[in-house]
Amino acid sequence: MNPSDTNRSYMDSMSSSEDLQYPRLLLQYRDGFLVSKAMFAACELGVFDLLQESGAPLPSATIAERLHASADGMERLLCACVGLKLLEIEMNNTEAFYKNTHLSAIYLTKSSPKSLHSMMMFFSHTLYKYTEYLADAVREGTTQHERSFGITRETPSYDAAYRSDDELLKFMHCMNSFWVLCGRDVITAFDLSSFSKVCDLGGGPGALTKQCLLENPNSTAIIYDLPKVVQTAKKHFISPDEHRVQFLAGDFFKDPVPEADLYIIAQILHCFNNEKGLQLLSKVYNSCKPGGAVLLVESFLNEDKSGPLTAQSMSLLMLLRTEGKEKTPSEYTKLLKAAGFRDIEVKITGKTYDAILARK
Tell me: the pLDDT tens digits for 337-358? Predict the structure, then answer.
């Protein structure tokens, strides 16, 4: 059964006579924003970090006191987190004690190597604000920077993620979390060992670059990004001792693209319309060494666009923030062929990000 058939079967099951009598699914969707915000609030307040550091379950009153929160509010939040399976509860006589689940300990504590805390905060403080204006974006077909953050086209760095050095750092931590979680899946989707010189266009914090070098020990890499991003990456993400990584500051639409054997273009094309996407891919093709390739990493829609929900949701975020959208593998393949690439292979990982390898 292909993914679209699976999606349709799931949705058909949700339209059973029981659901029509009582629309449980719709009510779950209605409360979806509260689910997200409960998790975000617990992260922001430091609930998971405190419980991890304590080494033992704690009562609600103690958690509230240590986190400088109201006793009543904290108890309600902790109860919601138990319902969301982010916390576990243990009763000692009549008093409830709380501890992290394995899931929250691994992904929601700041100290974990697999922490998604920065991602959760960026979604809560930045992306969430855009969604208030989704109906406006659909009605107008335009981004919502001005309504969400007062950012106009005359404002330098026309995106909320770049509106200050602090916001840029938060955004880069978010992107770092994505690739710590998903980087290995897309880097190992194909054998990249024959590509000795790699250029990661828009590589940001460099987590995907580092994953590529980890899997391919004979390769070296260039991270090419905007000057402010490069400066931040050098300061916060890439050690000066990492001699296999070099930086190049520039704008890949305006400035030359360096020569390389392999170009990684991850979560870039979905930010731009087809015209700009083809412009970038054509520049990459012209700079690519003969026999080289481009690794394209995005969230792919099914060919009939019936799913996956992650890619569909991401496409709505792109409407709110960019001129681009998520695409199907065939739509990306068409762009790659128009730029001159051939021998195009598609890999669906079954997770957030998928990959295409196309050769020159």
Answer: 999 999 999 999 999 999 999 9
